[in-house]
Write a structure and sequence with these properties.
The complex is a heterodimer of chains A (about 375) and B (about 300).
Chain A: H1 2-38, H2 59-65, H3 68-100, H4 107-114, H5 116-119, H6 122-133, H7 138-160, H8 173-182, H9 184-188, H10 193-203, H11 209-220, H12 236-259, H13 264-272, H14 277-306, H15 309-314, H16 326-335, H17 341-372
Helix pairs in contact in A: 1-17, 2-17, 3-12, 3-14, 7-8, 7-11, 8-10, 12-14, 14-17, 16-17
Chain B: H1 2-5, H2 13-41, H3 46-51, H4 63-71, H5 74-105, H6 111-123, H7 130-150, H8 166-190, H9 194-202, H10 207-218, H11 220-235, H12 239-244, H13 253-263, H14 268-301
Classes of the chains: A mainly alpha (about 375), B mainly alpha (about 300).
Chain lengths: ~375, ~300
């Protein structure tokens, strides 16, 4: 008997220790190391036997709390959390619901397509969307094409209104006035629009009406450029959009799979009893999914707090650190320029703390939910 | 009774149905259009791309791919990515099942504290720890290298066990999979009747034998779930490999593509080809295993 117990213990160790050692190496010990370094003035080189370093206290944290870049990064993380929880989850839910209730047919087909962004490497996604949103990218091109078409029509209409009986253009002040009115702002950039346009029409635009239209459109059509995305306040928008784009499909699949686990008879009998669709949603489907929704929200928040790849590939935190999140700021402090390991580790520890607080809150919410039932 | 009620009717009438289709088409278009745009543009020359970024190519420049493949050293990247993914997911799955088995079927006071520690790792993503992990592995290499130099085994600067080594990358990846892997394995193996284990014990089977002959074959579903969830994740991983590896011949596909896009930012033809090469393997993986992946997400990703 004693022998058997011994073997049991041995087997337990054999099965658990390898995992535990790797876990400690990759997660537990780095956290401890990070905490120690965040309290130190370690500046690289050999930790033992190299340059001297010592524990200096909480000054890295106090620096961090007064650092506007830190708060900016945290704010961006919060934006990401908000768009994830209030964007990805509801959208995924709506799409899943439409498929589940067979409001749209061909559920498999839609699922298949909508999940595609989730399988692509985030690095590829980041570079791809960066190209799409770039000031010289396709979005600019499409919008400019639309603008040009619209302005060509307007210019054409104005010119057609000022033709004489032979079909030649009558250059007079009312024509100039009408042209300026198409886009007063662009015209004002010409300096003195009336004289510029008059000279232009009198000298270069003689016969060919189409050519004249093209040149005038070029002159008056506003040039749209996505460079406004470099400004504070809007620079995060493309990143938030792409975050939504990436993961909504995954939550669709997750919610749909769990909706399909609901006993169809419950729904059937509710419908036979004449329950309204909103009642079915509120009293059958949402309660059944509450656990999954909660879990998804937790994973969403945890993911958004530690997100790195997408922003690193899309903007690298730029321009001028506007789109930095905590992980990027941490990376910058450790790997670019002169490394500041203590500060970098302080950021790392702050991220761990946020996650732990989150886990605590979740556990509390979970307990309350379970208590209610 | 069920013949009539099986048919769930739509709820908003025709107008609502049309609206729902519009929403679906819009989202599906949004999901797939950028990818198609990327693929189409990978066949344009750089000059053609700059004049027309939206339309179809006039001449299909297939040589973009050959060029990108060669310049980007994609054969090295592919081999590395395959090695990293297979070894880390494979080993992590076995370790997860072993630990899950011990937790579920061998009584021990240690289970509860160890398990709760491991579970914390599900939300503490390893990306958060990339700086301390980097310091840890590089310091270990420096320290051990120094030791080996004094023992005259090799030069300190040549010594790479953790940093800039395949072993180090795989180790870190295994660590990042283990928490969720152990969680899923534990939950699953709990469901296997304990009587089966006990009966074999009475027959004199060792725990090793039980694990390999009973638990492992019965755990196929959870193994598949772990493979399908973790293979794409590890294949696409970037943050950790970015700090674990600096040598070209150790880079993975995402890392290689990131470096490529930095170096050849203006050579659009090749850059687009590189991006398509980068997204293709997992797209193919998804097309092949779509049904199973969809099921795995429902089963495994998050559970009450």
């Amino acid at each position: 008997m004693l022998n058997k117990e011994k073997e049991e213990k041995k087997a337990y160790r054999r099965f658990v220790i390898p995992s535990l050692v790797i876990f400690i190496f990759v997660m537990a010990f780095p956290i401890i190391l990070s905490f120690i370094l965040s309290l130190s003035n370690f500046s690289g080189g050999k930790m033992f036997g190299g340059s001297r370093w010592k524990i200096t206290g909480l000054q890295n944290y106090s620096y961090l709390f007064s650092d506007s870049y830190f708060w900016n990064a945290l704010l961006n993380n919060i934006y990401l959390v908000l768009i994830s929880v209030f964007g990805q989850l509801p959208l995924g839910m709506i799409l899943a619901y439409l498929i589940y209730r067979k409001t749209v047919k061909g559920g498999e087909f839609w699922q298949g397509i909508l999940y595609v962004p989730s399988v692509i490497s985030v690095i590829v996604i980041g570079i791809m969307w960066n190209l799409i949103f770039s000031p010289y990218g396709p979005v600019s091109q499409i919008i400019n094409n639309i603008n040009t078409t619209a302005f060509t029509k307007e210019v054409m209409a104005v010119l057609n209104g000022h033709l004489d009986f032979n079909g030649a253009l009558v250059v007079n002040s009312s024509l100039i006035k009408d042209l300026v009115n198409i886009n007063a702002q662009a015209a004002s950039l010409l300096g003195d629009p009336v004289s510029v346009l008059t000279t232009f029409l009198k000298t270069s635009a003689t016969g060919d009406l189409e050519e004249t239209t093209r040149l005038l459109t070029n002159l008056l059509c506003p040039k749209w450029s996505a460079s406004f995305l470099n400004e504070k306040g809007v620079a995060m928008l493309p990143i938030l959009f792409v975050t939504l784009w990436c993961w909504t499909g995954m939550y669709l699949i997750l919610f749909l799979a769990n909706m399909q686990k609901i006993d169809p008879q419950t729904l059937d009998s509710a419908q036979i009893d004449g329950a309204k669709e909103s009642t079915i949603l509120r009293h059958i489907i949402l309660p059944e999914l509450s656990g999954v929704i909660l879990n998804s929200a937790i994973l969403c928040i945890a993911g958004s707090l530690s997100t790195f790849d997408l922003i690193y590939a899309m903007t690298g935190g730029g321009p001028a650190r506007i789109t930095q999140v905590l992980s990027i700021y941490m990376y910058e402090k450790a790997f670019t320029g002169t490394p500041n390991y203590p500060l970098s580790n302080a950021i790392s520890i702050m991220m761990v703390v946020f996650s732990l607080v989150l886990i605590g809150i979740t556990k509390a919410v979970q307990k309350r939910l379970e208590g209610d039932r | 009774m069920s013949t009539k009620s099986n048919k769930i009717t739509g709820f908003w009438g025709n107008f609502g149905r049309t609206f729902a289709y519009i929403i679906m088409i819009l989202f599906a278009f949004m999901a797939i259009a950028p990818v198609i745009w990327l693929i189409i543009n990978s066949f344009k020359s750089t000059i053609e791309f700059q004049t027309d970024m939206v339309g179809m190519p006039n001449n299909w420049v297939v040589s973009n791919y050959a060029g990108a493949w060669k310049i980007g050293h994609f054969s090295i990247l592919f081999v590395n990515s395959i090695i990293y993914t297979l070894f880390s997911v494979g080993i992590a799955t076995i370790l997860s099942l072993m630990t899950g088995f011990a937790f579920a079927k061998i009584k021990s006071k240690a289970t509860k504290p160890i398990y709760s520690l491991l579970i914390l790792g599900i939300l503490l993503t390893t990306q958060t720890l990339m700086v301390p992990i980097f310091i840890q592995v590089s310091q270990l290499d420096m320290g051990l290298g120094q030791l080996f130099e004094t023992l005259r085994i090799c030069r300190a600067s040549d010594f790479h066990l953790f940093y800039n080594s395949r072993f180090g990358v795989i180790l870190v990846y295994i660590g990042s999979i283990l928490p969720i892997g152990i969680y899923l394995s534990y939950e699953y193996i709990k469901g296997i009747p304990t009587e089966m284990v006990e009966a074999s014990r009475i027959d004199g089977a060792t725990y090793n034998l039980i694990f390999f002959k009973i638990i492992l074959p019965m755990s196929k579903p959870i193994m598949i779930t772990l493979f399908l969830l973790k293979i794409p994740q590890i294949w696409n991983e970037f943050a950790l490999i970015n700090i674990m590896v600096s040598k070209l011949n150790l880079q993975s596909l995402p890392l290689g593509i990131y470096k490529f896009s930095g170096t050849f930012a203006t050579d659009y033809g090749k850059q687009f080809s590189a991006l398509v090469i980068g997204l293709f393997p997992m797209l193919l993986f998804y097309v092949i295993f779509r049904k199973q992946i969809t099921e795995s997400i429902g089963e495994g990703a998050v559970k009450g």
